[in-house]
Amino acid sequence: MEVVPVQHQDQAKIVIEPALSILWYGSECWRMTESDLNKLSSFHTKNLRRILQIFWPETISNQHLLTYCNQDSMSTIIMQRQWRWIGHLMRRESGNISRTALHWTPEENEGDPEHLGSNC
Fold it and tell me: How far apart are alpha carbons 69 and 12 in whole angstroms?
């Protein structure tokens, strides 16, 4: 049986996909801040560089790295997952609790210790 060499792009996809699927679990519901997105993006690109064995002083921009590995940016991936989830919820029945959660807004003073009274 002949061993076929794996290209770097395929190797990156094989190694990184299982880790990313675990990382993205539940990302449809995340309230994403710029800081969170930066941390996720740096984790993603750092691991791609490790897989491709690109170390300092050898440099490559994040955009070139993602293009080379045929990967989307972390912000694009999470946005796609969120829109897909919203589309799924919109197709549910109007009385469904998960659909109600889309329109929920917190009440004023909710969680405020003064609002809870003397029981705290």
Answer: 7
